[in-house]
Specification:
Length: about 325
C-alpha cells in the first residue's frame, strides 16, 4: 500500500475491540496501543501508548450499549489524541447511538443526535465515518465531513447467494421503505410494507397492516436495526398469517436490548442476518443469527480516506 500507510494509526475503546482488530487485519497494520478503563470512582481514563504526533488517527468505537460509557470513551480518546498533536482525527462510529432522537416529535424533548454531533466536534474530531444512520439528516448535524457507509451490499449478497425463488422484501415500517426499496431492487424482488402504529413512548409497537402482495412468497424483512425485536417478530407473525411460506430477517445493527435474543429465538424466522457494527458475543447468538462483517468495508473506507481517494466509489 506504499509508505504513506506508516502514518496511519487505528485505536479503539472497549465497545467493539474485535471489529477494530479485524479492520487492522484487513489493512495489515497493528492495532494502536491505548489504555481505556474506569477508575473505582467511575471516571473513564485514557492513555495513548504510542506517538501520534502529526499522524492520521482513526478511532473505532460504536456508541452501543452501554451507550454513555462508550460515548465518553470515544470523546476522551479524541481529546487525548488531539492533545497529543494528532494530525487528523477521524471518529469511526459504526453504530451511532442516540440516532433515533433526531427531531422534536413532541413538546419539550431534546434532539440528542445533534447534541452528540456537537460533542464529537467539540472533542476534536475532524471527520466522522459511520454505517447506516437511523436518519440520513443526522449527516447535516455535523460541521465536519461525514462519510455514511452502507452495509446493504453485504446483506444483499448474502441473500443473492441463497437464490430464493418468489422472494418479497418487506419494510417493517414506512420510515425504512426507501432503503427497503433499494434492497428489493438489488435482489430483483417486489417490495411490501408493514404499516405499524407505535404506542406512546414505550418500546412496544403495534403492527397493523401489510401493503403489497405477499401470499405464497418467501419474505425478507428489512430494517436498519433490531432493538427489542418486537417490531420484526410481530412483522413475521403478520406475514405468516398473510400466507408467506418462510420469513427471513436482515438488519445492519444488532442492538438487541432487553429480551430481544429470547424473543428472536422463539420467533418464526428461518435466519436473522446482522452485521458486526455492534459486538454480538458468541454466547448470545442463538441458532438463528448469522453475523456478517463490515471490517472490509470500514478498512477500505479508512484506506481511501487516508490516501485522499473517493469513498463514494466504493458503492458506485
Amino acid at each position: 500500500m506504499g509508505p504513506v500507510i506508516d502514518e496511519l494509526k487505528i485505536f479503539t475503546g472497549n465497545a467493539n475491540r474485535q471489529l477494530a482488530a479485524d479492520v487492522c487485519a484487513y489493512l495489515n497494520i497493528p492495532l494502536g496501543q491505548a489504555e481505556v478503563f474506569k477508575f473505582a470512582n467511575d471516571n473513564t481514563f485514557v492513555r495513548i501508548l504510542e506517538n501520534v504526533r502529526q499522524r492520521d488517527v482513526f478511532i473505532i468505537q460504536p456508541t452501543s450499549y452501554p451507550v454513555n460509557d462508550n460515548l465518553m470513551e470515544l470523546l476522551i480518546m479524541i481529546d487525548a489524541c488531539k492533545r497529543a498533536s494528532a494530525g487528523r482525527i477521524t471518529a469511526v462510529v459504526p453504530y451511532y447511538g442516540y440516532g433515533r432522537t433526531d427531531k422534536k416529535d413532541q413538546p419539550r424533548v431534546p434532539i440528542t443526535a445533534r447534541l452528540v454531533a456537537d460533542l464529537l466536534t467539540a472533542a476534536g474530531a475532524d471527520r466522522l465515518v459511520t454505517v447506516d444512520l437511523h436518519a440520513g439528516q443526522i449527516q447535516g448535524f455535523f460541521n465536519i465531513p461525514v462519510d455514511e457507509l452502507t452495509a446493504l451490499p453485504i446483506l444483499v449478497n448474502h441473500f443473492k447467494a441463497k437464490e430464493i425463488d418468489d422472494l418479497v422484501v418487506v419494510a417493517v415500517d414506512i420510515g425504512i421503505s426507501k432503503r427497503a426499496r433499494d434492497v428489493a431492487q438489488r435482489l430483483n424482488a417486489p417490495l411490501a410494507i408493514i404499516e405499524k402504529r407505535r404506542l406512546g413512548n414505550s418500546d412496544r409497537s403495534e403492527s397493523l397492516n401489510v401493503i403489497g402482495d405477499v401470499q405464497g412468497k418467501v419474505a425478507l424483512t428489512f430494517d436498519d436495526e433490531i432493538d427489542t425485536g418486537g417490531t420484526v417478530v410481530s412483522a413475521a407473525k403478520v406475514l405468516l398469517e398473510r400466507g408467506v411460506t418462510q420469513v427471513y430477517c436482515c438488519a445492519t445493527h444488532p442492538v438487541l436490548s432487553g429480551s430481544a435474543i429470547q424473543r428472536i429465538a422463539d420467533s418464526d424466522f428461518e435466519e436473522v442476518v446482522v452485521t458486526d457494527t455492534i459486538h454480538l458475543p458468541l454466547e448470545r447468538r442463538n441458532g438463528k443469527f448469522k453475523v456478517l462483517s463490515v471490517a472490509p468495508l470500514l478498512g477500505e473506507a479508512i484506506h481511501r480516506i487516508h490516501r485522499g481517494q473517493s469513498v463514494g466509489e466504493l458503492f458506485s
